[in-house]
Specification:
The protein has 160 residues and is an alpha/beta fold. Helix content is 48%, strand content 15%. Helix 4 (97-122) links the parallel strand 4 and strand 5. Helix 3 (60-74) packs parallel to helix 4 and helix 4 (97-122) runs parallel beside helix 5.
């Protein structure tokens, strides 16, 4: 039986590289991302073991829907990798409420919601499951012009 991994933020960087690595290991990869076009491109490149799911981590209903689908198709999750993140480098006083919400809702609340939904499926898994939260040095100390991002990553540490 193939193992199942769910990875958020698969359309670039670490998430994309992790997806490729686990597909090479013959795992079934459920890739969460916002960009439908990029998800489609990955699906074409990675093949049938990659299941792209268009998910907006700022929308709890979008997350719930994705995990209902995963539970129906996979019936379990062996590993969850919370990788998605939003980043804006800007002087804090020049930040808008929308930018603040985007970063906090994606990097912290989205991660919490994804974990909540994944755990509902993982508890049915007879084998030990794992949750990996991708952090940042921004979770250990402040960085100039990254106050909101640092706050979101500090929150990730606290939640983890």
């Amino acid at each position: 039986m193939n193992k199942t991994i769910v990875i958020s933020g698969v359309t670039s960087g670490v998430g994309k590289a992790l997806s490729k690595r686990f597909i090479d290991l013959n795992w079934e990869v459920y890739g969460l991302g916002r960009d439908r076009k990029k998800l489609s491109g990955l699906s074409n490149s990675f093949g049938s073991n990659f299941i792209p799911l268009e998910v907006d981590l700022m929308e709890s209903d979008s997350i719930k829907s994705a995990f209902k689908y995963i539970e129906l198709k996979a019936n379990n999750i062996d590993v969850l990798v919370n990788n998605a993140a939003s980043f804006i480098m800007k002087e804090f006083v020049k930040s808008s409420y929308k930018e603040i919400n985007t970063i906090i809702d994606t990097n912290l609340k989205g991660l919490i919601y994804v974990t909540l939904e994944a755990l509902k499926i993982m508890k049915n898994n007879s084998n030990p499951s794992r949750i990996i939260n991708i952090g940042s040095v921004a979770s250990t100390h402040g960085i100039e012009n990254q106050a909101i991002y640092c706050a979101s990553k500090y929150g990730l540490n606290g939640f983890s």
